[in-house]
Write a structure and sequence with these properties.
Elements (H helix, E strand, L loop, with lengths): L2 H18 L3 E3 L10 E4 L4 E9 L8 E4 L23 E6 L4 E5 L8 E4 L8 E2 L21
Parallel strand pairs: 3-5
Antiparallel strand pairs: 1-2, 2-3, 4-7, 5-6, 6-8
């Protein structure tokens, strides 16, 4: 799956989950480098960065990248490390559908976060759909067939 499509999947998952928690969810107009969604709970507004990953560690945990390495041909080679002040929460959706809603101040890494163990377990929320396999195609679709 193309990384942008996987990211769109994560944003939709996050928006649906936040809406189910009672938030009115908005998406910033234009590119926002620090967060992907805005969740208005009535008494507070939260800036939410969304991350997705299908990458597992050797121990079977999920490793989500928090930092940004660019993504376009004009990239300068500078990595933008995660800074908790840029957003209020990080929503992570992983390959098998597990999801976490993490307060940004609780994350102790600037490059990655490893999920699926005891650490951050209190931030795990109800699972969603698995991230679609890039090799699968939709039923009845000719997209992806050769």
């Amino acid at each position: 799956m193309h990384p942008r499509i996987q990211g769109d999947f994560g944003e939709m998952s996050g928006a649906l989950w936040l809406t189910a928690q009672g938030a009115v969810v908005s998406k910033p107009i234009g590119h926002c480098p620090d967060y992907d969604l805005i969740a208005d709970f009535g008494d507070r507004i939260c800036r939410v960065e969304v991350k997705t990953t299908a990458r597992r560690t050797k121990l079977g945990r999920w490793c989500a990248q928090l930092c940004t390495h660019g993504g376009n041909q004009s990239w300068t080679g500078t990595t933008k490390l995660f800074e908790p002040a840029r957003c209020d929460y990080v929503y992570v959706h992983v390959g098998d559908g597990r999801r976490w809603f993490l307060p940004s101040w609780a994350l102790d890494g600037a490059r990655t976060v490893t999920l699926g163990g005891e650490k951050y377990s209190e931030c795990e929320v109800a699972p969603g759909d698995p991230i679609p396999d890039r090799t699968q195609r939709m039923p009845g679709s000719t997209i992806g067939s050769r």
